Automatic annotation (TrEMBL):
<comment type="similarity">
    <text>Belongs to the binding-protein-dependent transport system permease family.</text>
</comment>
<dbReference type="GO" id="GO:0043190">
    <property type="term" value="C:ATP-binding cassette (ABC) transporter complex"/>
</dbReference>
<dbReference type="Pfam" id="PF00528">
    <property type="entry name" value="BPD_transp_1"/>
</dbReference>
<feature type="transmembrane region" description="Helical">
    <location>
        <begin position="110"/>
        <end position="131"/>
    </location>
</feature>
<keyword id="KW-0813">Transport</keyword>
<keyword id="KW-1133">Transmembrane helix</keyword>
<feature type="domain" description="ABC transmembrane type-1">
    <location>
        <begin position="74"/>
        <end position="259"/>
    </location>
</feature>
<keyword id="KW-1003">Cell membrane</keyword>
<dbReference type="InterPro" id="IPR035906">
    <property type="entry name" value="MetI-like_sf"/>
</dbReference>
<dbReference type="GO" id="GO:0006865">
    <property type="term" value="P:amino acid transport"/>
</dbReference>
<dbReference type="InterPro" id="IPR010065">
    <property type="entry name" value="AA_ABC_transptr_permease_3TM"/>
</dbReference>
<keyword id="KW-0472">Membrane</keyword>
<feature type="transmembrane region" description="Helical">
    <location>
        <begin position="18"/>
        <end position="36"/>
    </location>
</feature>
<protein>
    <submittedName>
        <fullName>Amino acid ABC transporter permease</fullName>
    </submittedName>
</protein>
<dbReference type="InterPro" id="IPR043429">
    <property type="entry name" value="ArtM/GltK/GlnP/TcyL/YhdX-like"/>
</dbReference>
<dbReference type="InterPro" id="IPR000515">
    <property type="entry name" value="MetI-like"/>
</dbReference>
<feature type="transmembrane region" description="Helical">
    <location>
        <begin position="76"/>
        <end position="98"/>
    </location>
</feature>
């Protein structure tokens, strides 16, 4: 496949690529070593600092620490992200369909709205929701995430529909399907499958953007990390940073794996599944008693 797109690398190019790969790997290892040494000089690897997660000081228990991170912080993050994702996906679908409308009076205003909200920072929309609309911290975060990501999802879905061959829509019209039947029965399902990686990538961005709720005092995971650091002392900032980063990575990795599973499953269904070999007549393979129907 690679030889179709470009010429295969020759021996000299392969040696040069290998050399630069080794140099790059050594450079990254050197940076990691320097970071490790710097943290070690400040005592960040001392066991006493990491004991905050199983034997915390100041009369707290490990259960209190982990509950604040996983139940209060991560729970608030997932709750805001889940509600915002559902509403934003529905809003993105509506905007995508409206932007592809054949009526100019619908298409032009929707296009303006999508382009306008795509250019606004999410945190600014959160501030607007909390201070201008007087929403709660939770709904202020959801408001900002929904407004921004609806515009992004609309563009992703529209791009997926536009990337499909025009012959599919023409064939649907030829057999008597209406514009809406063609869109929702033929084009949109294929567009969702085709753009699923982009949709999931944006969902990961949406999940990470919940951390902006920290700025408006929403008690999500980042806010809980800061609260624990302030309570136990700044000497534990690195430990809480590492644990918080690990939690974010674990959640986003799980979401990405789920997307891969759904994409493979959708591809299998679109192809009609895996064909099974027909059972030989008479239940025998190659047997003389098994007759032939040909």
């Amino acid at each position: 496949m690679s030889s179709i797109l470009y010429d295969a690398a020759g021996p000299r190019t392969r040696r040069r690529t290998l050399a630069w790969s080794i140099v790059g790997a050594l450079f990254v290892l050197a940076l990691l070593f320097l970071a490790y040494r710097q943290l070690d000089e400040h005592g960040q690897w001392e066991t006493e600092r990491w004991q905050v997660f199983w034997d915390p000081p100041m009369g707290q228990s490990a259960e209190d620490v982990w509950r604040s991170l996983l139940v209060t912080g991560l729970g608030a993050t997932l709750r805001a992200a889940g509600v915002a994702a559902v509403i934003a996906l529905v809003g993105g679908l509506v905007l995508a369909v409206a932007r592809m409308s054949g009526t100019r009076l619908v298409r032009v205003p929707v296009t303006t709205v999508v382009e306008f909200f795509r250019g606004l920072p999410v945190v600014l929309l959160m501030f607007f929701g909390v201070f201008a609309l007087e929403l709660s911290f939770f709904w202020g975060v959801v408001f900002g995430l929904v407004i921004y990501n609806s515009a992004i999802f609309a563009e992703i879905l529209r791009a997926g529909i536009m990337s499909l061959p025009k012959g599919q829509a023409e064939a649907a019209y030829a057999v008597g399907l209406t514009r809406w039947q063609t869109l929702f029965s033929i084009l949109l399902p294929q567009a969702v499958r085709r753009m699923l990686p982009s949709l999931v990538s944006q969902l990961v961005v949406l999940l990470k953007d919940t951390s902006l709720g920290f700025i408006i005092a929403y008690s999500e995971l980042l806010r809980q990390l800061q609260t624990n650091t302030q309570f136990f002392g700044q000497r534990y900032w690195f430990q809480f940073f590492v644990v918080g980063a690990a939690i974010y990575i674990a959640v986003n990795f799980t979401l990405s794996r789920l997307a891969v599973y759904l994409e493979r499953r959708g591809t299998t269904k679109a192809a009609g599944g895996v064909a099974k070999a027909a059972e030989p007549v008479g239940g025998k393979v190659g047997g003389g008693e098994a007759g032939s129907s040909v």
